[in-house]
Amino acid sequence: MKILFLDESGDHNLTSVCSDYPVFVLGGVIVESDYATGEMDRQVKRFKRELFGAEGIILHTADITRSLGAFHRMRNPEFRRRFYAELNTLVDRLKFRVIACAIKKDRHLETYGLHAVDPYILSLGTLVERFCRQLGRDEKGLIVAERRDATLDRQIELAFLNLKIGGANRVPAREIDRKIESLTLRDKRDNISGLQIADLVVTPIGREVLGKPQQPDMKIIDRKFVRSTHGEKLGFGLVILPK
Q1: What is the pTM of this model?
Q2: What fold is seen in the domain 2-241?
Q3: How far apart are CA 42 and CA 95, in angstroms?
Q4: Checking CA distances to 153, which of 27, 99, 124, 161 falls within 20 to 30 Å?
């Protein structure tokens, strides 16, 4: 069984578009379930113990970049260099595949106006479709996403139910219903290693979509994207909308 751990980068709200980051990315990592709860979890916990002396720290990009909470030590340049070097080594070593959908919000609004679909809902359908393609004929999959607030969580649950009833663009409902057992929402505080790796993946993808200089973390992530048999990333592991 495979698990797709999902996280997001950017704001899915279409009422305002941030000029510095006008993109919404929903993306994640596909991991074998036994590996996710076994070796992946052990390696992530070992990384935390070695760097911070505790396993309970949650790897969260916003806190890391702003040196907040447990990451106050990131203000020390030497520790910051060590942290990123060892984090990149960890991510490179872990076994997972990446899929992501990026919505350029300004172009999305220009193209569809009042009919523009919520970026999270649109991205979810795209990723469910790609996830199904990564599952064997008789293989099952689970989706684990980060819990937000009650209203948004209910919207996501309904959107997933609609996919199981109505299907995605190129995957019929019966296939989604047969292959994907459930979509589960978990709190960040649950300290799930797969969700934290997904968190670390999505922001570098957003930077790349916006054309910002590629950092070492993105070079590692790029190698882990799902690709076509010809090595194509766009349209397979990474979907950018509008096309």
Answers
A1: 0.95
A2: Nucleotidyltransferase; domain 5 (3.30.420)
A3: 13
A4: 99
